[in-house]
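Form 7-S
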Amino acid sequence: MKDILIDFDIELGFRKVWKWKWWIGGLLVVAAVVSFLLASMIKPEYRSTAAFIPPDISSLKSMVFTSGLGYRGFEAAEEEDIDRTVDYLNSLQVIDSIAVMYGLYEHYGIDKANPKADEWFYHAYSTKNLISFSDRSTVQITTFDVDPQYAADIANTYLQFAIDFFENIAQRKSGLAAAEDEMNQLSARREKLVDSLANMRTQYKLYHIDHVGEGVDQILSQAIRNSPEFNKNYDRMLSCELQLNWLEERSSDLEREYVGRKQNMEQYPLLIQITQRAKPSTFKARPKRSIIVAAAMAGTLAFAIFMVLLLDRKKAV
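Output:
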């Protein structure tokens, strides 16, 4: 019995709506036209996408170039490292830098003099630039803009920020420059020590003769005891020789480190694995006019049916 009543109510309701079919149809046409015109007035935006695989941060911190154990390739980043990467790219530091680089306040039509300029800007920016973590440890950068070149440039700029972020952790470039600078300083010190030793040997006729025989050792010992000046100059010469030996060892270590760092940077120019670089799109990404029109028509249809049933009930009362 209940099923019969439900079927009857549905049929009765359909008949009531059908009576107004031309009015409802007219409203749907108006809704379609208006929504289409409004969607056409919205500036279309183009989408660009860039993606990369971040490295394992612990592997960057464990690089030892003096022993040849430099960074040897890409390892899957831990979830914590990926979260840290996404948080950095979403930080105000990066956003503000990109805003200045591309003049985004003006580009988005926001007056900086307005007290709510920052609030409006960050809201607009968050809807146009999305940083997300996808499968296979990939960080994806999706940008939207009315200018397809702007969208591509901003996405690729994010890649550069990611490159600089991990280079700053690994300290490869700064380490290479520091090693080269220290090598130059040691070379200058070595030249001074060599000159000092040469002058002492020429002026005082001093030569370091070590373990060449008991007779020579006795002569040196006697000279050291009997001549304070000889003893003083001989100690200076030994000190210079010890410093020179240390400089030779340190220079050798630095040279291995320098060569290791340079080879590592040549073999792995980037510490991130770029899987996709952004390119200007030729297709409009949003707004989707068909979706806007369909949504407007569906809402209009639901509202029209509701009003028909409501008016019919009031008449019945």
